[in-house]
Amino acid sequence: MEREIRSRRSHLVFIGWHERLDADFATLVELLGLPIGTTLPGDEYIANRGEPTNAQSVLPADALAILRDWYAEDYRLISVLAELGLTDPPPEVRSMVGAVGGPASLR
Q1: What is the pTM of this model?
Q2: How many domains does the chain have?
């Protein structure tokens, strides 16, 4: 996977993050040359967004370990993309990447 990413680096234009959806969408609009004012749907139903909540769920340590293992390959991919300067993961993703052995710069 890493070799493939490195060989196709010039084909990757933008990597956005759900955690920064509004800001990353604005960047994407600019990169694609879309009309100023292009936005994501604002209606919660049309946008398929749930009710906003400030509550943060905390999973038990064993559940987090299972998720880290399940998504380990994805976190390695994120690590490679960040190393190549193709993305800057949000803090909540950086902590997960570091937890599975990503570069120290992401921890």
Answers
A1: 0.69
A2: 1
